[in-house]
Amino acid sequence: MASAAQQHRATRFVGPVLADLPPAARYAVALILIAIVAVARHALVPVMGVQAPLLPYVFAVFAAALVAGFGPAIVATLGAAVIATALYADSNIGPQLLAWSGHVVLFVLLGFLVAALTHRLQLAYRTQSQTLAAVTAAEKRLRTITDAMPALISYVDSQHRYVFNNKTYREWFGQGEQQFTGVHARDVLGEQAYAALKPYMDLALLGRAVGFEAAVPYNGGTRHVKADYVPDRAQDGSVQGFFSLIQDMTDQARRTQKLNDERLWLAMSMQVGKIGAFEWIVEQNHNHWSRELLELYGFRQGEFDGTREGWLARVHPDDLQHAQTSLDRIANSDEQAFEFRIRRHDTGETRWMQGRTKTFRDASNQATRVVGVNIDITERKQIEEALRESDRQKDRFIATLAHELRNPLAPISNIAHLFTDQRTDLPTLRQYGGMVQRQVTTLARLVDDLLDAARLRRGSIEIERKPVAISSVVEHAVETVRPMFDAKDQLIKVVSNGHSARIHGDGVRLEQALINLLTNASKFSPRHSHVDVAVANVGEKVVLSVRDYGHGIDRELLPKVFDLFVQGDQGLNRPQGGLGIGLSLVKGIVEQHGGTVSAQSAGIGQGSEFTIELPREPVAVIADA
Q1: Are residues 310 and 329 in the same domain?
Q2: Both ends of the chain: CA-CA distance in Å?
Q3: pTM of the prediction?
Q4: Integer Cα distance of 110 and 125 in angstroms
Q5: CA-based nearest residue to 515, from 565, 448, 437, 560
Q6: Parallel, antiparallel, or unpaired for β 541-548 and 608-615?
Q7: What string of DSSP letters covers 261-282?
Q8: How far, in Å, are 125, 129, 135, 136, 155 from residue 132 at the CA level?
Q9: Closest CA relative to residue 481, chosen from 506, 445, 456
Q10: Which class for 138: exposed (0-12), middle (13-18), buried (19 or more C-beta within 10 A)?
C-alpha cells in the first residue's frame, strides 16, 4: 500500500486520465503528443506557412497536462521549444534569433501556466470527487446504521418538512423514501398527531433540546412514544432544523400497564386475603417484608429491623418454641407450613398466622434464601371455634331437650298406669287428669318454643302490627307469670312513667317476649325475692326493663346470652330447666319491631337486668287510633 507521501506526490504529478501508468510511460506519452503535433505542424507548412509555429504546441502541452499530469506537461513544453527551434529557427524565412528567443520564452511561460492551471483544476476536481465520494459513503454508512436501528429517526427542517427518514420511520408510516422527502410533517403524521407534537417541534426550532413521553393519536391509532428532538444549528447559530429520535413504547407501555395491573390485583388480593410476603436472606439474617405483612404485624415503615430476632419478638410466648423449631426445620426442608400466634406491634392484639415457606439452596445444598407468606387466619380460627361451640351447643341442646321431654313424660306414663288400675277411684283420676293436662301444656310450650325458634331462624315469624298500649302488654304479661311468682313467694314491682305510651306492633308477641324475661327472672331468683319492671318514655322510644337480684350472668356468657341454645351452667340435675331458646326469641321479636334488647350483669350472684327499647307510636297515629 502506498505511503501518504507517495499518495501526495501522485496527486501532484499524475493526471486523472493515466493516473495508473508508470511515470516513464506518462512522460513517453507527453513526448509522443509533442512529436505528433510537430509532424502535423510541419506537414501544414505549405498551407499555413511558418507564422506562429509554437501555437499548436500549446494544445499539445494542455493535452499532456490533462492526460499525463503536471511533470510530463513541463517536459512537453521544453520538448516543444527544442523541436520548434530545431525546425524553424534556421529557416530562410524564419525570424531573427533574438525575436525567436522571445517567442520561445513566452511559449515556455505559457506552457508552464497551462500545465499549472490544468494541474490545479485536476486537484480541485479530484478533491471535489473525493469529498463527494466521502460524503456519499458517510451518508450510506449513516443510512445503513440508522436503517438498522429500531427507533424512528428523521430530520425535519425549519418549515416542518422532512429531509431525512430512516427505514423504520418509513415502514412505520407505510411510505417510501421519496414519498417523505420535502413532505410537511402534518401530511405524514395526521392532523391530530401533528397538533399534539407541534408544540415540541416549535421548542426544538427555538433551540431547545426536547424530550418527552406521550400517547399520540396517529392516523393508524394511538401510540405511546418516547421522543427526543435535538436542534441543528448553522454556523451563524440559527436553527435550521432538528433531529428526531422516536421510540415506539406502545407494547412496553401495555406490558408495563399489565404488570402494574397484576401487581395491583396481587396487592388487593393479598390485602383482602390478609396475606403478607417476605424474603429471608439466611446468611445476612435479613428479612424483607412486604407492606401487607408489615400491616398484619402492626408495623409502620421503618419500625421492623428485618432480623429473625425481631420477628420472634412478635410471636406469642406460648408459640415461641414452636416457631423456633419451625425456623430450624426450614434448613432441612424445601417447603413448610405451620401455624402460630403473634402479638401485633401497635395494639398488642393476638392474631393467628399461618406461615408457608419455600427454601432456595446453593450448589452445596446450603439454604441461602427463604421466601414465603404469612396468612392471617384469625377469622378462620374463630369460625372453627364457633363451629366447635355450635357442635357443643347442639349436643347440649339434644341432651337438654331429652331431659325436658322426659320430665313431663315420666308422670304421664305413671298416670297412664294408674288409669289402667281398677282400684283407682274417680276423684283420684280427676286429680291425675289435671296433672296430665299440666304436663301436656308443658310439652306444648316446648314444641311452640321450638317452632318459634325455627321461624325466627327462617325469618318467617308472623307479626300482626297495630297500635298497642305498652301498659296492657305489661299488665297481661305480669298476670300470666304471677302464679309462678306466687309459688316462690316472689314479688313483681312495676314502676312506670310511660303507661300512656303506645307502640305499633304485635301485642301478643311482645307479651311473649316480656313473659320470657319475667320467667327467667323468676327461675334464676331465690324465694322471697322481688323483680322490678320499669317502663319509661325516652325521647322517641319506649324503654322497658326487667331487673332481678338473683343468680346473675357470667361475664364470659354475657356477650352470647341471646344466642340460640345458649344457657348458663346449671349442673347435671338442671334445676331451672329450659332449652336456651327464650332469650333468642326475645331478641328476634324485639328486632322485628325495630327495637333492641340488651343484658347487663355485674357477674354471678349480682343479679341481671334486661332492657328493651322500642320505637314509640307517632302522635298522629295515636290520635287516629
Answers
A1: yes
A2: 126
A3: 0.48
A4: 22
A5: 448
A6: antiparallel
A7: HHHHHHHHHHHHTTEEEEEEET
A8: 10, 5, 5, 6, 21
A9: 445
A10: exposed
Closest among 286, 320, 323 to 306, alpha carbons compared: 286
Angstrom distances, CA of residue 556 to CA of 383, 572, 580, 583: 18, 20, 16, 16
Where residue 6 falls among pLDDT bands split at 50, 70, 90?
very low
Reported as a single tens digit per residue, the pLDDT across 225-273 is: 999 999 999 989 999 999 999 999 888 888 888 888 888 888 788 778 8
Instruction: For residues 334 and 263, state if they share a domain.
Output: yes
Long-range Cβ pairs for the range 568-571 (8 Å, 24+): none
Range of the domain at 449: 383-453
Q: What is the number of domains present in the chain? A: 5
Residue of higher predicted confidence among 298 and 175: 298
Mean pLDDT of the chain: 82
Alpha carbons 73 and 71: distance in angstroms, whole number: 5
If one counts every other C-beta atom within 10 angstroms of the C-beta of residue 358, the result is 14
Alpha-carbon torsion (390, 394, 395, 399), positive or negative: positive
Task: Classify 554 as helix, strand or coil.
Answer: coil
Amino acid identity of residue 539, one-letter, is G
The number of C-alpha atoms within 13 Å of 255 and in the hemisphere containing its C-beta is 5
The distance from CA 504 to its chain's CA centroid, rounded to whole angstroms, is 54
Rounded distance, CA 482 to CA 485, Å? 5
Task: Count CB atoms within 10 A of the CB of residue 105.
Answer: 11
What percentage of residues in the chain have a pLDDT greater than 70? Answer: 82
Residue 506: phi, psi to the nearest 5? Answer: -105, 105
Helix, strand, or coil (residue 406):
helix
Among candidate residues 199, 229, 248, the one where a domain is terminated: 248
In a 10 Å sphere around its CB, with 0-12 CB exposed, 13-18 middle and 19+ buried, how is residue 7 labelled?
Answer: exposed
The Cα 142–Cα 160 span in angstroms is: 22
A 10 A CB-CB count for 429 gives: 13
Quick one: cell of 475?
Answer: 299488665
Query: What is the percentage of the chain residues whose pLDDT exceeds 90?
Result: 29
How sure is the predictor about 191, in pLDDT bands with cuts at 50, 70 and 90?
Answer: very high
Rounded CA separation 528/556 (Å):
28
Query: Do residues 472 and 499 touch, judged by C-beta distance below 8 A?
Result: no
Residue 346 lies in a domain: yes
Q: Of the given ranges (362-376, 424-438, 568-582), which has the lowest mean pLDDT?
A: 568-582
Instruction: From 376, 398, 414, give the residue that closes a domain.
Output: 376
Q: Which three cell numbers stand for residue 91?
A: 529557416
